[in-house]
Predict the structure.
Amino acid sequence: MTGTSVFAHPFCPVPTALLSFRSASGQLLIVPAGWVGIVCSKPSTLSVGFRQGAFARQDLLADGDFAINLPTDELLADARFLEALAVSGSDILEAAGLTLTEGTIGRVPLIAECPVQVECRKGTVQTRFSQCLVTAEVACVHMAGRSYGLERPVNLCRLDPFAALRRIFSGPAGARPSLLGV
């Protein structure tokens, strides 16, 4: 991808993250999140906002575990990916050719092509109109081939994977940055 990062613009009409979890029946659900916020508390907490869509409220976070997957600019610029996001009920994974891996907590699915994944637990859901707000404790962060939070609680405010992803993947055109410098 050439030019500046999509994150460099004040209006970014693509999802900031992909929420992944399993419903009570075990069905994999991938939901584009409109915004993600870090709550600097002990333990670190994450809040995620998105449109409820075609799934029922009882399908949301049946066991309270989910993951936030942060896509790269390349993925956000992929026409197949954007089309899958635009079509209600489409299989985002299949349409964009994405693959899953298992997380370290529960049955949380992670999207392998996303360089940063944040696993969360004890999630709660609030709905108002057609909007959902999910808040949960951060259990583990996978970034740059490393996992943070496996042995002791991760301080998400200090790690700040959102800024790291923007900083690294919005470098000069043609550069192939690596998360290893984080």
About this structure: The radius of gyration is 16 Å. The CA atoms of residues 22 and 107 lie 7 Å apart. Helices lie at 73-77, 79-86, 92-96, 156-159, 161-169. The beta strands are 17-22, 28-33, 35-39, 45-51, 66-70, 100-102, 109-111, 116-128, 131-143, 146-148.
